[in-house]
Amino acid sequence: MNGLFSVSKDEVICSLYAPVNGTVIPQSEIPDEVFSTGMLGEGIGIIPDDGYFVSPVKGTVVDITPTLHAYSLLSDDGAEILLHIGIDTVELKGKGFESFVKTGQKIDVGTPLAKVNLDIIKKEGFSNVTAMIIINPDILSQLTIFEGECSASKSEIIKFVINKSDS
Asked: H or E element: which one contains 16?
């Protein structure tokens, strides 16, 4: 895979792994304009098969919304990632969401983040499509997205280069 990327001594190749078992879809297919149009940054959507969400990176939990539907993560390489579980799920006010991490906690790829009852999301009329967005895309180059079936913490679904002299 590294052969696809041309990097200098000031650059590092980074990967984001699947945060949940499911199917990766293009960002443009996320059913929310804020995510699908790239207003917040570059990323993907995932249609989850189950409700067990794990960290896609090694880094730190920066923030968790009080309603437990969104997680802000900072990778050790400097990528800022927003993991937003479902669309408009803030309206559920935490119903069906359980968090396993705290703000400031160090995480590895695969660290459990949350358990979500996807049936509640569906029953309440919301989409369970999850957005994983890199919200500081200005430090990225050579972004590659992998679509299709994915396994939590095992499938590399986004690969990119960060220029360490810019971050």
From this structure: strand 11-17
Instruction: List pLDDT tens digits, range 95-125.
Output: 999 999 999 999 999 999 999 999 999 999 9
User: Is 69 a residue of the active site?
Assistant: no
Give the whole-angstrom CA distance, residue 141 versus residue 44. Answer: 16
By C-alpha distance, which of 125, 98, 123 is closest to 113?
A: 98
Average pLDDT over residues 32-53: 97
The region, left, alpha or beta by phi > 0 then psi within -120 to 50, assigned to residue 137 is: alpha
Question: Active-site residue among 20, 71, 84, 140?
Answer: 84
The per-residue pLDDT for 40 is: 95
Distance CA(22)–CA(75), nearest Å, equals 22
For the chain, domains (ranges, CATH) are 12-162 (2.70.70.10)
C-alpha to C-alpha distance for 27 and 84, rounded to whole angstroms? 13
pTM, entire model: 0.91
Rounded Cα distance, 43 and 162, in Å: 15
* Helices and strands of the chain, counted as H and E runs: 2, 14
Q: Is the pLDDT of residue 167 over 70?
A: no
Query: Is 139:161 a contact under the CB 8 Å cutoff?
Result: no
